[in-house]
Specification:
Layout lengths: L2 E3 L7 H4 L6 E3 L6 H9 L3 E2 L1 E4 L4 H8 L6 E4 L11 E2 L1 E2 L5 E2 L1 H7 L14
Parallel strand pairs: 1-2, 4-5
Antiparallel strand pairs: 3-7, 6-8
Length: 117
Amino acid sequence: MTKVLTEVSQEMRVMRDESLGPVVGTMKISSDEEAIRLMKDSAFGLAASLWARDIDRTAGIRDRIETGAMFMNRADYLDPGLCWTGCKSTGRGGGLSAIGYHNLTRPKSYHLKKVTS
């Protein structure tokens, strides 16, 4: 069962660390600028979810957040065609999409120079 925590603060680990569990912390903010500042105040960057009626507003915020995956008005779907990846201390590499396939293979380069006599 998912736990929704209220009355949390930015100093709490649930707001700064990746729980990767069925828990989410919620807190009131006074502006988009405050939200961006608080979202950047983490060593991790796997995913973020923005909820608003104004799509242009979410796009403006989305472009300023350091995260591998961005959900807008949802947080419940992984598209196999889009890469699932993180940034900062979340890790490197990616899953899903062509990028995920390339992360599971090991390319090898061949350099050939024709011998002429």
